[in-house]
């Protein structure tokens, strides 16, 4: 997978001290950088839609009529 030039988050990891002599590196010039990116997919979440078919009673004749469910 190739790297993106526009990641959503960037976290810089700085070395605290020299790996050879242990001297502090605060303010030392940067000489390079390695980039690694982690691509995470959001978890799949089911989306539930409830359809409520309402039934009404006619005030004139007393018949009850329920709405039709949508196709599918």
Structure overview:
- The protein is mostly loops.
- The chain has no helices and two strands.
- The model has no long low-confidence stretch (mean pLDDT 93).
- It has a two-stranded antiparallel sheet.
- It is 0% helix and 8% strand.
- The protein is rod-shaped.
- The protein has a domain at 1-39.
- The chain has strands spanning 55-57, 64-66.
Please estimate the helix content: under 10%
Task: State the end-to-end distance.
Answer: 39 Å
Proportion of strand residues: 5-15%
Main pleated-sheet profile: 2 strands, antiparallel
Sheet with the most strands: spatial strand order: 1-2
**How many alpha or pi helices?**
0
Determine Rg (CA atoms, Å). 32 Å
What sequence of helices (H) and strands (E) makes up the elements? EE
Low-pLDDT stretches = none
What overall geometry do the principal axes of the alpha carbons give? Answer: rod-shaped
User: Given the helix and strand composition, which structural class is it?
Assistant: little secondary structure
- For the secondary structure, the number of strands is 2
Q: Mean of residue pLDDT?
A: 93
Task: Please name the defining characteristics of this protein.
little secondary structure, two-stranded antiparallel ribbon, 0% helix
Short overview:
The protein is largely without helices or strands. It has no helices and two strands. The protein has a domain of 39 residues.
Question: Layout of SSEs?
Answer:
Blueprint: E1 55-57, E2 64-66
Antiparallel strand pairs: 1-2
